[in-house]
Amino acid sequence: MRAPDFLQSTQASYDAIAEAYAAEHPDSLAGRPLELALLTAFVELARAAGTAGRPPVADIGSGPGYVTARLHEAGLPVFGIDASPRMVALARRAHPELRFHVGSMTALDLPEETLGGIVALYSIIHVPDDHLPSVFAGFRRVLLPGAPVLLGFQSGDEDGHQRLRERYGKEISLDYHWRTPETVAGHLEEAGLEMYARVLRAPQGEEKMPRAFLLARRPAPAPSGVFRPSGRG
């Protein structure tokens, strides 16, 4: 099946800039206490939802692999997925003890209910609005009940879009979508994922836009005989 046009251009763009990007971002979580705290919260939620089999978590849009590495250091079984073969090669070189695969969040090649969590930091920003519902439905499909999702993305007062034609001196065609937390939370809830936390951080350093972080999870079934209110009066 032919990959969507936006996915092909995203893959080609990151293949072109992979070395420069990895050199600039060997670990973008360093010196980011809020992001590290949210990653710690994700780890604890994944542990709480895990079973005796210790299901793996997936870092989707893993790039150079620094988030994957931090999850591994926290004791979670983890692997990375990225659309760019060149970026995957660099991640494997930087973290040879970890698994990285070429793939896309738009078509996760995983069985149902096999993941103990999903992290996607600054990767849904390349997914068009009309593809987000199916992406989040795919997340729900592969997550175990109770397993968490951590998203990070650029945000603003309203949704928007920009296409970059050049980066690091390379000619590219890379779409960036920024969205309000409410927009993304709405898509998550429509996909059957329940919200756990929403955080909006002001721009830091050279950043021009706020950063939004959402923690959600696939609902766990209510224990037998336990009443779960519908939320209606």
TrEMBL record:
<keyword id="KW-0489">Methyltransferase</keyword>
<keyword id="KW-0808">Transferase</keyword>
<dbReference type="InterPro" id="IPR041698">
    <property type="entry name" value="Methyltransf_25"/>
</dbReference>
<dbReference type="GO" id="GO:0008168">
    <property type="term" value="F:methyltransferase activity"/>
</dbReference>
<dbReference type="GO" id="GO:0032259">
    <property type="term" value="P:methylation"/>
</dbReference>
<dbReference type="GO" id="GO:0017000">
    <property type="term" value="P:antibiotic biosynthetic process"/>
</dbReference>
<feature type="domain" description="Methyltransferase">
    <location>
        <begin position="57"/>
        <end position="146"/>
    </location>
</feature>
<dbReference type="Pfam" id="PF13649">
    <property type="entry name" value="Methyltransf_25"/>
</dbReference>
<dbReference type="InterPro" id="IPR029063">
    <property type="entry name" value="SAM-dependent_MTases_sf"/>
</dbReference>
<protein>
    <submittedName>
        <fullName>SAM-dependent methyltransferase</fullName>
    </submittedName>
</protein>
